[in-house]
Amino acid sequence: MIKVKRSSYLGLVIAPLLLAIAFEKFGASFQFLVAIPLALISGPLFIIDAHTMRLPNAITYPATALLLAMNLSYAIFTGESGDFIDPVANSSLFFMLFLFLHLATRGGVGAGDVKLSFVIGLSLGSLGFTLLFAIAMVSFIFASLYSLFKLAQKNVGLKSKIPFGPFLILATWVCLPLLLR
To answer: Is the pTM of this model over 0.85?
Structure first.
């Protein structure tokens, strides 16, 4: 079990803000419904990863199962197989991109980040792979800027590790309102 400071519960405080962003973009729609689990886990995962450099399976696995079930239920309800295939295919591509990075960097991108990419993909995959790819690029930019800042402060070295999950989460919620106008 991962022990986390009480301050980690502050991650829940941002859930209403993220829900408001999602509602502003999607209104009362199915896309808003699949954004709810992502909004609820984003704050806690951000704080947990920032403190421990781990994204707990106890959060990512249930979120994955819930989002798969929601997408499948919606496809059955609408009778359109694309309502399930599109988000699953796009999230699978997003997952494979991060899996490749995980393997290519020998763990530089952690396994938790790979699993988080699948959760984000299941939540936003019906909007297209372009959004997911933009999220990946923006997260790398944010992580690079943070690393450069820490290097300039001489707080880290070139071989130091930083948690990537917070940048992936931040990029998700920055890209969502900016790219969907």
So the answer is: yes
Domain ranges of the chain: 6-179
Give the dihedral sign, CA 19/124/96/73: positive
pLDDT tens-digit series, residues 109-120: 999 999 999 999
Map tokens 């494979």 to a residue.
96
DSSP reduced 3-state for 154: coil
- Greatest alpha-carbon span in the chain: 57
Per-residue b or e along 30-68, where b marks 16 or more CB atoms closer than 10 Å to that residue's CB: bbbebbbbbbbbbbbbbbbbbebebbbeebbeebbebbb
| C-alpha distances in Å from residue 150, one per residue of 53, 145, 147, 158 | 16, 9, 5, 10
**pLDDT tens figures, 68-96:** 999 999 999 999 999 999 999 999 999 99
Distance CA 136, CA 146 (A): 15
